[in-house]
Amino acid sequence: MSLNPQQVTNTINELQENFERSGLTKQQVATDLDISLTKLERLFTLTQSSLNDPLILRNYLIEKVEANGQQPVEFTALVGDWHQYWFLNSRVIDKRKITAGDN
């Protein structure tokens, strides 16, 4: 999945807004996803090498925003059913298995 510069900017903003609506701290998110804060920052800035990982964060944040009684900000680029994209590993995304390490 390749995003143009505007889509990258929009997605970064959408992730951040949903994070804020979740009411969680970054440490809570990192702990829940079993990743380091360094890795979490890479996900929030879309500098993570795995294409699956940002979708996992997206899905996690949507769930947490809804659990917090808020309406999630809609994503404009990370949309659709990830099961339909041949370049994504839907099983990994469904299991929320973020790649190991900080890259």
From TrEMBL:
Q: What domain of life is recorded for the organism?
A: Bacteria
Name a Pfam family for this protein.
DUF2316
Q: What name appears for this protein in its UniProt entry?
A: DUF2316 family protein
**Could you tell me which species this protein originates from?**
Loigolactobacillus zhaoyuanensis
